[in-house]
Amino acid sequence: MRLFLVTALAMLAFAGNSVLNRMAVAGGAIDPMAFAVWRVVAGAGMLALLVAFRRARSGGVVWAGWAGRGAGVAGLLVYLFGFSLAYAALDAGTGALILFGAVQVTMFLGALWLREDVPPRRWVGAGLAFGGLVLLLAPGQGAVPVMAAGMMALAGVGWGFYSLAGRRAGDALAATAANFVLAVPVALTALALLPEAAEAVPASARGIVLAVLSGAVTSGMGYALWYAVLPQLGAGRGAVAQLTVPVIAAAGGAALIGEGVGWRFALASALVLGGVAWASLPARQSGLTRR
């Protein structure tokens, strides 16, 4: 029961990032770029505190090292800014689904690039997920804004690269904290170089509070919960658990912002989430094991 509850809290936190970002940016409470900067600063502070607290209690790694983090920091920044910019026009659930699908496709292509052994079920799963993304972007009734969808897909590529860069990290929480801390000065510099973008929508107290909640709570504490429970779940169950995130985000958007869920989102969700589930299940569960 404890494993289920902690996993559920982590998934709620991940979905909460979409809802909080949408509430702040679409509501005109803060500019997307300013939201991203506040989020990374708050996330860095919270993650640094969590790592330091763990160190004080039980010893171990304080930081995972500063060298060789260029790819991880770059991927993180692309994700953060693309995520915020996309939510100026995308519903919470739609954005989460595009992000999720783009991450999975990026991870799949990364495995091919690295010449890893890719079983047939991952080809099928990646194809279904990509088909779901194409359906979301296809012209017609209920189509999503192409520019915003492209920004979210770019955010998914960034997070995919971030995940690929950090796969060999011995301490995922410490590595994430280090990446967030290193991303702060870059994000602040980007904001300083583009003052007209940051000032397009003056940041209100509500917008800043939502951004800090997204960084410190649903990002920082959410990642801490996830990395604590992931070893018990395993890669397969962990990937399947994350299938709930777009659904939770859509429900949160409907309940808190009044966003609707149309047929296109429902069908695309079935393709993307079904494809990822098929690709993530062990061979014996997906019916591929020969007896």
From TrEMBL:
Protein name, per record: DMT family transporter
Coiled coil (UniProt feature): none
Transmembrane recorded as keyword: yes
Organism superkingdom: Bacteria
GO CC, one annotated term: membrane
Residues annotated as transmembrane: 36-54, 66-90, 96-114, 123-140, 146-165, 172-195, 207-227, 239-257, 263-281
Source organism (scientific name): Aliigemmobacter aestuarii
UniProt keyword list: Membrane, Transmembrane, Transmembrane helix
Entry-linked SUPFAM superfamilies: Multidrug resistance efflux transporter EmrE
Residues of the EamA domain: 5-137, 149-280
Compartments where found: Membrane
Membrane topology per record: Multi-pass membrane protein
Pfam families listed in its UniProt record: EamA
Keyword Ribonucleoprotein annotated: no
